[in-house]
Amino acid sequence: MQKFNIIYLIAAFLIIGCNNSAYEKSENIVSEEIVENPLPEVLGTYDGILPCANCPGIEISLEIREGGDYHKTQVYLNDTSEAAQNTFDDFGKWRFSTDSTYLELNYDLHDINLHEFWQIINNDELRLMDENAQPIKSEFNYSLKKK
């Protein structure tokens, strides 16, 4: 009879021990749940004047549209040629980088696919990056501000 009580007591401990470990495991799963950061709110129009090597600046208007499309207008300031030749429009697709810290703009120019990278400073500012998606180290302003 005493052997039966010991076996019964051991079985009870095992059941209680299994239940506690199951509770701890489910608690750990909840606490380790991955919560993704929301994507930055980049939709809208950004304006600014970027530096230019042979003119006073390039006035840029960049519209980031819903659905992954964008429209960028560039006007070279104080150029002596005709106004139509001073203005360039780019249309293409945009997407977030894998870590959502910058935008990649893709467009075609004479059948060549080109990329342009814009760092997301905050919801109201984008800053042009170099061709390797690295920040440009310069004393000049490469930022566009949201309207």
Q: Which radius of gyration do the C-alpha atoms yield?
A: 29 Å
β-strand amount: 35-45%
Outline, from the CA principal axes? globular
> Into how many domains do the coordinates divide?
2
Low-pLDDT residue intervals, each spanning 5 or more residues: 20-35
Strand order of the largest sheet: 1-2-3-4-5-6-7-8
- Helix/strand order, N-terminal first: HEEEHEEEEE
Highest CATH level, the class of the largest domain: Mainly Beta
Number of strands: 8
Q: Mean pLDDT, as a whole number?
A: 80
CATH architecture of the largest domain: Beta Barrel
Provide a descriptive summary of the structure in words.
The structure is a single chain. By secondary structure, the chain is α+β, with helices and mostly antiparallel strands. It has 2 domains: 35 residues; 103 residues, Lipocalin. 23% of the residues lie in helices and 40% in strands. The chain is built from 2 helices and 8 strands; from the N terminus they run αβββαβββββ. An 8-stranded antiparallel β-barrel has the order 1-2-3-4-5-6-7-8. The longest helix is centred in the N-terminal third of the chain and has 30 residues. The termini are far apart.
Q: Secondary-structure map with pairings?
A:
Blueprint: H1 2-31, E1 44-50, E2 58-64, E3 69-76, H2 83-86, E4 87-96, E5 102-109, E6 112-122, E7 125-128, E8 143-146
Antiparallel strand pairs: 1-2, 1-8, 2-3, 3-4, 4-5, 5-6, 6-7, 7-8
Please give a quick description of this structure.
The protein is α+β, with helices and mostly antiparallel strands and 147 residues long.
